[in-house]
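Write out the 3D structure for:
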Amino acid sequence: MNFQILLSILLLAGLLYYFRQAFTSQKNKGRIVDLLVVGIILFMSPNIHIHIKTDPLSIAGVLIFAYAWGILIVEKFWEGYKNNENN
């Protein structure tokens, strides 16, 4: 049990480090972050499958779609906000 907690903490620290490095990247920052998120989703789908009893690939597809949809909604919000601010 203690080993799982330690492993989880190390995994979380590693993920935080990679996201921090991605945000400091000068080129393709958004693409790098998106690929990290998709990788995490694909990695975690079999674990979610245990609790939901649905195909892991279907779970990953829905989560990736929801992530992309959320990005689109936020970007469109900021576009509208900036256009409204300029008028």
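The two ends are 58 Å apart (CA to CA).
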